[in-house]
Amino acid sequence: MSATHPVNTALPVDTVYDTGSKLRWAAADSWTMTRRELAHWTRQPVQVVVGLVFPVMMLLMFSYLIGGGAGVQGDFKAYLVPGMLTMTMAFGLEGTMLSVTQDLGKGVIDRFRSMPMHSGAVLVGRSVADMLQSVVGLTVMLAVGYAIGWRWHEGFASFMGAVGLLLLLRFAMLWIGIHLAMVAGKPELVQAVQILVWPVSFLSNAIASPESMPSWLGAIVEWNPMSATASAVRGLFGNPGAAGDSWAAIHAELLAVAWPVALIAVFFPLAVKRFRELSR
Fold this sequence. Notes:
Elements: H1 19-43, H2 45-66, H3 76-88, H4 93-106, H5 108-113, H6 121-147, H7 156-184, H8 187-194, H9 197-202, H10 215-222, H11 225-237, H12 247-250, H13 252-277
Helix pairs in contact: 1-6, 2-3, 2-6, 3-6, 3-11, 4-7, 4-8, 6-7, 7-8, 7-11, 7-13, 11-13
């Protein structure tokens, strides 16, 4: 799976190499694990297609079947598309979680650990593959949004800034998913965990304005990390945003960075710690 290291495999990799060699081998091993995850795409095309089609169906359903969101002023599609892009960053985590738990259940990770490879390569490879798939999914959603009439009105830099905030949120959600998958341990338990994605996603301003909700619920919605990203993305795209004069609404761009960074700071080390404990 990974290139054989020119060292005695009985010795821990981390104790043999200098810093430069460690980084080179860590990158090589991580890319090997990334290619392993990408190879699954060709073997499981249906799962990949379903992952791409599902958010598109959600976008079309809310746009054409359900109609305008509560409390939204102006063009609903201009409000909806950035919100659905944000929700898409939470969808599909079950695929990541199932892959992790299946590898744990089949002993695949134990076999990787017996090889002379960097200890973090498995998690890094999983995360890189997931982010690549997220880029593909985001591109599809942007194309569909454009096809149904959505437009952005700011420059290219603002457009890329919005995309960056969306991927930052995805990266944070990814490490939450990896950690929870290792805590769950079994694929059947993942279904119970992934149900939480839905209330968190819909308890945001993705499809309705907090101003249309009871005050206590609107306050919760405004402080949802996904609401911060959705509001910030709308601003960067030049699309209409949710009305509101709360601190969270006014400083949405700040929170769109702070929330994901805080989540990564918590769940990344927890995931790494949990991964190391699995081999004991």
